[in-house]
Design a protein that fits this description.
globular, mainly alpha, single chain, 21 helices
């Protein structure tokens, strides 16, 4: 039965390669090979840390703790991507929990991401081995870490399975994903500043002492303890991850029993939005805009991108540029805002096509497209109008506000126009009910959705430099900024 689980997981991974054309299959294989080479290079770079044992130990502890947290949080952020994560799919099968746990554990080791994790862990095993004699022990520790990540991740996903299949669960996943996004950039900015301070090494040593008493940190420390002859301390350290795996197993087992023996306890239905109807709105564009605004407020998969865009516009300029010119980095957030108009004909399934066919009038069909655009352009333009003056006032670039608005608004409008064009040129199917921010397209349309997204990002960024040519002129004479503003919006 365990072998059957493994073969089913392998079929899920290779089914797309069997159904696409030979050219696309070769491109996909080349991409996977490139990702494998990149993972090997990363592992090789990490292994070079063994030349500085103290730093290697701190980095190893940080990496293992971060890896475990990432595996445990991934069910909240990416629930719905992996079909084997939801235990309800196995509820009607005559399987014992012990068999399911063994099969799902083996299935979790099969895939591109687990392979990348193993490659990086092997490089880390070299890094935390003071001598080659303890390398086998380090490899065993990394394999135990991999098993700990699988058990903890599966236990968390099983416990949250009922919740994550509802709108409340998707709201929670959205908040967790947004918190991780903000935390990552916040920690990155903090570390970049602390690295320049005198007490940075002391802070790392303190953090290493604390992390060494966690199960992942203990696994990173065991090879060093064995190499130093501290076998008693190594044995005590080994008890931490073993106890964590046992606790995770019983947590997973209990959660699996609750999930298989009881139905979903949270209702998917929602309260009425109000007594008004769309028919009272003025015109087709207003009706569509109001509908999209309601969906934007209700659907966490649509809210999360706007939260990230807000962070990119208001927060990231302080990290990327710590002086003059920070207002121009708002353009990146403006491009991301413009991408929200992408795939207009797929995000509502066949509903958009049905509307256009039923309307039968080019003017009204165009008005429906305009309604979709309004929900992106209006909030995007307002965010730009707030973020650019804020950066200008803080960094003493008030004279550059007009040209900054021109660059950012042109990036927003350019990305919006390009996304709308590609929506009609290359539409792709999307799941009707998305429970993950990563489940953005049907399995057979992943390559198309990725290509369209990259095209909108780089195409929108390519439009902004046309207006950015006025920046040197605006530095000479402020009135050139107002010319750039007119030209930028016109482009």
């Amino acid at each position: 039965m365990v072998g059957l689980f493994a073969s089913l997981k392998w079929r899920l991974l290779t089914s797309r390669l069997r159904t696409i054309s030979t050219a696309k299959r070769n491109v996909s294989i080349a991409g996977l090979a490139a990702a494998g080479v990149a993972a090997l290079l990363v592992a090789l770079g990490i292994s070079q840390l063994r030349q500085v044992p103290d730093t290697a130990l701190v980095v190893g502890e940080l990496m293992l703790v971060t890896q475990l947290l990432a595996w445990m949080l991934s069910p909240l952020v990416a629930f719905g991507v992996d079909e084997t994560v939801d235990p309800q799919r196995f509820a009607l099968l005559p399987l014992r929990r012990r068999t399911m746990i063994a099969g799902l554990t083996v299935a979790a080791t099969i895939g591109w991401l687990p392979a990348v994790n193993l490659i990086v862990l092997l490089g880390l095993a070299l890094a935390v081995s003071p001598t080659m004699a303890v390398l086998p022990i380090a490899i065993v520790c990394m394999l135990v870490q991999f098993l700990l990540c699988i058990v903890a991740s599966r236990a968390a996903s099983t416990s949250l399975a009922d919740l994550m299949s509802t709108r409340r669960g998707r709201d929670l996943g959205m908040l967790v994903g947004f918190a991780v996004f903000v935390l990552y950039f916040g920690v990155n900015a903090m570390l970049s500043r602390l690295s320049k301070s005198e007490g940075f090494l002391h802070s790392l040593s303190t953090a290493s002492t604390v992390l060494g008493w966690t199960p992942p940190g203990a696994l990173a420390r065991i090879p060093t303890l064995v190499a130093n002859g501290e076998l008693g301390s190594a044995a005590v350290a080994a008890l931490l991850p073993v106890a964590a795996i046992v606790a995770g197993y019983w947590w997973w087992r209990a959660a699996l029993r609750r999930s298989l023996e009881s139905g979903t306890s949270v209702s998917e239905s929602s309260s009425p939005a109000g007594t008004g109807t769309f028919a009272t709105a003025g015109g087709v564009a207003a009706v569509v805009a109001r509908r999209d605004r309601v969906l934007l407020w209700r659907d966490p998969m649509r809210r999360l991108p706007w939260l990230m865009i807000t962070v990119f516009m208001f927060g990231m300029p302080f990290v990327w540029v710590r002086g003059h010119g920070a207002l121009f980095t708002v353009a990146f957030g403006a491009v991301l805002a413009g991408t929200q108009t992408g795939n207009q004909f797929g995000i509502d399934g066949s509903g958009m096509w049905l509307h256009i066919v039923a309307i039968g009038d080019r003017a009204r069909a165009s008005a429906e497209i305009v309604g979709h655009l309004l929900v992106t352009v209006v909030p995007g333009a307002v965010l730009v109008a707030l973020a650019v003056p804020l950066q200008a006032v803080i960094h003493d670039d008030v004279a550059l506000i007009p040209v900054g608005l021109a660059v950012c608004w042109s990036a927003l409008l350019g990305a919006t126009a390009l996304a709308s064009f590609l929506s009609a040129l290359k539409p792709y199917a999307m799941p009707q009910s998305r429970s993950s921010m990563f489940a953005s397209s049907a399995p057979q349309h992943k390559a198309r959705s990725f290509g369209v997204s990259m095209g909108v990002l780089f195409g929108g960024a390519a439009i902004a430099p046309a207006t950015a040519a006025f920046v040197p002129l605006a530095l000479i004479a402020a009135w050139w900024g107002w010319v750039a503003l007119v030209v930028g919006v016109g482009l």
